[in-house]
Amino acid sequence: MLASPEPKGLVPFTKESFELIKQHIAKTHNEDHEEEDLKPNPDLEVGKELPFIYGNLSQGMVSEPLEDVDPYYYKKKNTFIVLNKNRTIFRFNAASILCTLSPFNCIRRTTIKVLVHPYPFLVLIDCVFMSLTNLPKWRPVLENTLLGIYTFEILVKLFARGVWAGSFSFLGDPWNWLDFSVTVFEVIIRYSPVDFIPMLQTARTLRILKIIPLNQGLKSLVGVLIHCLKKLIGVIILTLFFLSIFSLIGMGLFMGNLKHKCFRWPQENENETLHNRTGNPYYTRETENFYYLEGERYALLCGNRTDAGQCPEGYVCVKAGINPDQGFTNFDSFGWALFALFRLMAQDYPEVLYHQILYASGKVYMIFFVVVSFLFSFYMASLFLGILAMAYEEEKQRVGERSKKIEPKFQQTGKELQEGNETDEAKTIQIEMKKRSPISTDTSLDVLEDATLRHKEELEKSKKICPLYWYKFAKTFLIWNCSPCWLKLKEFVHRIIMAPFTDLFLIICIILNVCFLTLEHYPMSKQTNTLLNIGNLVFIGIFTAEMIFKIIAMHPYGYFQVGWNIFDSMIVFHGLIELCLANVAGMALLRLFRMLRIFKLGKYWPTFQILMWSLSNSWVALKDLILLLFTFIFFSAAFGMKLFGKNYEEFVCHIDKDCQLPRWHMHDFFHSFLNVFRILCGEWVETLWDCMEVAGQSWCIPFYLMVILIGNLLGLGGLRKLIITVEEEAGMSFFTLQQQGEVQSEGGVSPL
Description:
By secondary structure, the protein is mainly alpha-helical. It has four domains: 15-217, Voltage-gated potassium channels. Chain C (Four Helix Bundle (Hemerythrin (Met), subunit A)), CATH 1.20.120; 234-266 and 288-415, no CATH class; 479-604, Voltage-gated potassium channels. Chain C (Four Helix Bundle (Hemerythrin (Met), subunit A), Up-down Bundle), CATH 1.20.120.350; 609-738, Helix Hairpins (Orthogonal Bundle). The chain has 25 helices and five strands. It has a three-stranded antiparallel β-sheet with strand order 1-2-3, with no helix packed on it. Strands 4-5 form a two-stranded antiparallel ribbon. Strand 2 (79-83) and strand 3 form a beta hairpin.
């Protein structure tokens, strides 16, 4: 029976180990599958840092093939790993099939050493270069250089991973497919004489997404979001079904109604020729004979029902001209009706559409909009959140199962540590007995005593952050034990400042200070300004006295060991600096920092501490999501600028009567970034109308749908993750606050 090979620590990947692994895989295929329940270890995934439990990484093992430490891949997949200086895991297929070189080939080893050292700065340079509108003269040189580097990277990956030989080959990674496609498109577009469509010319902006596979947190987060998207397929189909139904209902109710306008019927001797309202032939197709309200761009809508909008005297309601909003708001076809219903579902500028329909069709149709608003805005949003919650709950359960598997290992480690501590205590007792026994001459006890004392000294030194002379200075000058009279004063002050009634008095002062801050307004009378200034002086004096008394009671050394005391001292120093610079011009900005006094309540309010602790840790946990959202916004802005920038410049007269770029456009990166950010905030329909006027519907609608759907998916996923993280951190915060109770009591904190 062939023994099952087990990797112990970091072992170089040699030909002997390669043959042993192949024999074991062949043996398991021929016999019963006794290891089918074996699964990959999440801590040993590609891109993660190798845990230190597997041993130290020597210099000779960096960028060299090592035996796979994950039993799943070691026993079943015939792979090996390579670590860089940061202990990041890279996994490769060892099989030499389908244009894959041997793991011991010098060319493959060299390319692997190049591959395990990524270069994100090149992607960042390319991103900055793509955001420029006025490109420099040396643009072709930089573009060719970057293209050469990316082509070289693809060749390195092909030699290092192989073309197609397992899940860790070049074509086994979808990000490599994207990188290869973008590079091929760029080569074809740059060196082909054919003039390609703008979509292919903007394919280079997809290279911004290379940031994602370079960061393991972003890559895993994208995987989670794709998993959530799969869960949302049913919801999306259901949403489209309901949208289609209500679109057909809207077509039956409102088809052609939005073209009803108040038209001035020409008199007998009046020229019946219709003239443009402006001299610009592109700006509008409306006529002077329509009735316009003052300041309105489009003609007044009307209806033939009694509860619809009525025309003023001398005008009749006729169906003529174009639909409102540059002709893009109507129910004349299924596509435009679906667009209007999607706009209602997204609640973007819905009140204008309500008014347009009520003016043109009648007030009774308000029932239609009430039903649509309640169904889509509340029911469908709840359904989306429910599906996302299910996906994240599954992720949470997976983490819980994983922790259950790891818990016995930690218990065993804890028992070993406890036994070690008991052994240390026994050794310490033996040392003490030796000290009390003058006759003892045992040499082993001497050695044990020296080793124990040396271990304690090293442990104490490792806990010290600052150099030793700083501690000597602090204990000499910052611990005040001068005389018996001073010690009596210190004890008296300690009793006063640490009393619960003192804390209650300080809490009342903080609340009153917050009330005084809320009384500020503009303009203020002289009496109110004087009252607020006097109150500010009083509160600064109280907080200063609190700091001084606590320093006396605790020594400066003990006072500044507590974080809340440091925060209190910063507030006091800020107040004193503000008083000294009160008459200096331009120093009014210091008044803003008075708001920090509100956070002094956290010292006496445990729930407030828990909330702040949870929020701070949650933002740290969401750093990958924030980075992914920023990457998506940056990519969308660059993509929109490349795709629509020239159209805004050439056809600006279609959207502005003075042929000037409007406030919201995508001609340059800055405005494109702002436009994408506005889309994610839920206000997109007005800018979409302008985009369709200058660039057409076929490009603008898919771009806006991409930004809206992916942006909302990231937002909902981030909200759910934030809720889960806050819940977890809140539980941890209770435990942390209990541990810090003694420290806080020593620091003058006694929660009421």
